[in-house]
Amino acid sequence: MEAYTGSGWLLTKLEQLVNWGRKRSPWPLPYGTACCGIELMCALASGYDMARFGAERPSFSPRQADVLIEAGTITKKMAPILRRIYDQMAEPKWVIAMGACACSGGVFRTYSTLQGIDLVIPVDVYVPGCPPRPEGLLYALLKIMDKIDTEHPLRGEIAGLVEGK
Ligand code: SF4
Question: Is there an atom of ligand 1 within 6 Å of 41 CB?
């Protein structure tokens, strides 16, 4: 009888199936604002070929993307726009901060530069470097896939409600 309490076998397998499909088809939303955007383009081009990881469909609509890749400097004036784009993405969604500027403002310790995009949106993986190499972004993408694999498909509060927490 114990086998039928809690997360049953069928539900567990369904979760794994959803996560497996989701992790094999991330739809990135490229948000390049500065030089890091060039490295992002390199990662998408044939030399590095992000398509090898199922991410060959960059979306320029937030409603049709689940991995926001923010590559480049964000000014304080742009911060509300970045937040709005993040809000427009459907759940579940993940964020990669690509490069020193996105992670911490980088060398631009100025009044007008946002000192890290995590001040306005949650970040799942940080890619260090100025500029970061395309390999760094691909590694971050693999880390996102690892996260998807271990998460409840409904994520966050909804998952808590389903599990009665
Ligand atoms: S981290 Fe370096 S390469 Fe990337 S946007 Fe900032 S200054 Fe440019």
Answer: no
Residue 130, ligand 1, Cβ within 6 A: yes
Q: Which residues of 146-161 are buried (b: 16+ CB within 10 A; e: fewer)?
A: eebeebbbbeeeeeee
Q: What is the pLDDT of residues 110-162, one digit of tens each?
A: 999 999 999 999 999 999 999 999 999 999 999 999 998 888 777 655 555 65
Place of tokens 């996560």: 19
Q: pTM for the complete prediction?
A: 0.87
Q: For 98-119, how does the pLDDT look when each residue is reduced to its tens digit (9 = 90+)?
A: 999 999 999 999 999 999 999 9
Q: How far is CA 60 from CA 8, 11, 49, 146, in A?
A: 39, 34, 18, 24
82: which 2 tokens? 């970045």
Q: Residue type for 156, please? A: G
Q: How far is the CA of 2 from the centre of ligand 1 (A)?
A: 54
Three-state DSSP class for 163? coil
Per DSSP, the residues of 65-114 read -SEEEEES--BTTTHHHHHHHHHHSPSS-EEEEESHHHHH-TT--STTB-
For residue 110, count CB atoms less than 10 angstroms from its CB and return exposed for 0-12, middle for 13-18, buried for 19 or more.
exposed
Output the residue whose Cα is nearest ligand 1's atom 3.
131
